[in-house]
Amino acid sequence: MLTYTIRRLILSIPTLLFIALVIFLLLQLAPGDPMAQVPLTVPPEVKEKMREALGLGAPWYVQFWKWLVQFFWIEPKVFIDYLTNSSTLFGWLPDTELYTKCGAGALEDCDLRMRSWQTRSPVMDLVLQRLPQTLWVVGLAYVVAFFIAIPIGIYSAYKQYSKFDQAGTFITMIGFSIPPFFTGPLLIVIFSVYLGWFPSIYDTTLEVNSWASFKKQLAQMIMPVMVLALQVTAQISRFMRASMLDNLKQDYVRTARAKGLSERVVVLVHVLRNSMIAVVTVIALAIPGIFGGSIITERVFKVNGIGDALIGALFASDMPMVMTLTFIFAILIVLANIFADVMYGVLDPRIRYD
């Protein structure tokens, strides 16, 4: 299994390079001009010099190669240099103000880093600044969705056609049908405007250092988490129910019951483990899926995360920012597929990769 995992990671490199090329070419064909935000009073020759300074005058393959070098060589080098020269080596995220200084040994690489056309700041600095907010909201939504969807799917299958199963089917159909850009404003109207229970705008400057600030943080996270968790919960619970129903009809279940095993052991040990083999793909692919849902959700609730940054970069035709964030989502999808394949072997000893 370890050999297979290493081989898959190595094979993912050309896959990611091809994905990066496709994303880059699509962005080249997309409409929009980064000079559109420049005031009309700026002379055309000045705009042309600004365009050349951004590297827009170079051929597309030169621009693509420059981006690859910046993403895979310059940025990791700067990050490693920062860690080796920082007293917070084992911190969760680096201090972006210090990280911008590139550490002690990579100062010569500061000018080579990829920079946002909109802010002229290094792209990875902006990503690191916004990443904690996204991880808090997305991570909590994924955990909530997982721990709600699995029990619902198990009980719905075990009590097929019961009132609980019918109610779960109705709710999951709603979760499948309603997109986040509709659910978000709907929750704001209900819980913020009419009831006044939760704030409609996420305060990213809030520091949690007391019980009162913790309650404020929890209150402002509830609606974004609910929006993101709803669709994932619906998806996982339906697949969990279908897989459980299929396994409950198998011969090994009747054999286990005939041996005198309790119903709890039969369902939660034998049936659940075999059912998870089919569901693990959905669970793994829900990770990049929930990040994709955060793009709209962060915009609706004004969460200062990477999803909101991607929308802003698209409107500003900020290609380095769009390219980097889109490629990060692509990496998540590739890693989620590898994770799903590895989990097959963990859940089912019969599955082995030679």
Level-2 CATH architecture of the largest domain:
Orthogonal Bundle
Any idea of the CATH class of the largest domain?
Mainly Alpha
Number of strands: 0
Instruction: Quote the average pLDDT.
Output: 77
If you had to describe this structure to a student in words, what would you say it looks like?
The chain is mostly helical. The longest helix has 39 residues. It folds into 2 domains: 81 residues, no CATH class; 219 residues, MetI-like fold (Orthogonal Bundle), CATH 1.10.3720. The N and C termini lie close together (8 Å). Helix content is 73%, strand content 0%.
Q: What key phrases describe this protein's structure?
A:
MetI-like fold, globular, mainly alpha, 354 residues
